[in-house]
Specification:
The chain contains 7 helices and 10 strands. The chain has 2 domains: about 120 residues, no CATH class; about 80 residues. Helix content is about 30%, strand content about 20%. Strands 1, 2, 3, 4, 5 and 6 form a 6-stranded mixed beta sheet that branches. It has a 4-stranded mixed beta sheet with strand order 7-10-8-9. The radius of gyration is 19 Å and the shape is elongated. By secondary structure, it is of the alpha/beta class.
């Protein structure tokens, strides 16, 4: 019987499952949720909120396992190559579908292929947002764009994802639309933005909310 790995994205809930000849009624043991980012990362709020109701519905423990690395590829590959029994679930952003192609562009052997993962549920839809340190002399989008134009290539944008990840495209579109250019730092994410006056971040709303005290601009 063909193996079928199913996934989710921040969109999705992902699960590695092939409904083969089951000996026991599913689920008969704990079901693990895989978060492919570190604790307090972009998926953490979502996966924690999901674990408790799933545990109640499935009547089994639903532990969360953080398998961070390579922009989410490590955890995603773990699910893609897991036993197809439905006991390994992935919660991941939409970039899970693009990372194998990024590996190909970088002349690397992909850790998994997109056809190993199938989206089964849309968990949330987050618009990317731009946040800045309070000390940055820009209090609205117009001021930020003007500042970026006058300091081409100097503003550091932490986006918290690997190259060509889910936040790469919105940032590239902003540069094209406004004639600006930023320095990208994919590793520091929201921590950079919250602690450094010279940094801003292109991020999802839940990630921003978990690190910074957001307030509506004047």
């Amino acid at each position: 019987m063909n193996k079928m790995a199913q996934t989710a994205v921040v969109t999705v809930l992902a699960l590695s499952a092939s409904y083969t000849l089951a000996q026991d009624r599913y689920p008969s043991r704990p079901v693990t949720l895989i978060d492919p980012f570190p604790p307090s990362g972009p998926i953490d709020i979502l996966v924690r909120a999901l674990a408790k109701p799933l545990q109640r519905i499935l009547k089994q423990p639903v532990p969360v396992s953080y398998r961070a690395g390579a922009g989410g590829s490590v955890g995603s590959a773990l699910v893609a190559n897991a036993a197809p029994d439905g006991y390994t679930l992935l919660v991941a952003p939409s970039s899970v579908a693009t990372m194998p192609e990024v590996d190909k562009l970088s002349n690397r052997i992909p850790a998994y292929t997109a056809d190993q993962l199938v989206g089964v549920a849309l968990l949330s839809a987050q618009p990317p947002i731009l946040v800045v340190h309070p000390a940055l002399p820009a209090k609205n989008a117009h001021e930020f764009i003007e500042l970026a134009k006058s300091h081409t290539g100097e503003l550091v944008v932490a986006r918290g994802t690997a190259p060509y990840g889910g936040l790469h495209m919105p940032l590239a579109m902003l540069e094209v639309a406004t004639g600006t250019r930023f320095r990208r730092n994919p590793s520091t994410s929201m921590i950079c933005c919250c602690r450094s006056a010279g940094c801003c971040a292109c991020t999802g709303f839940t990630s921003a909310a978990s690190h910074c005290r957001l307030r509506r601009p004047n």
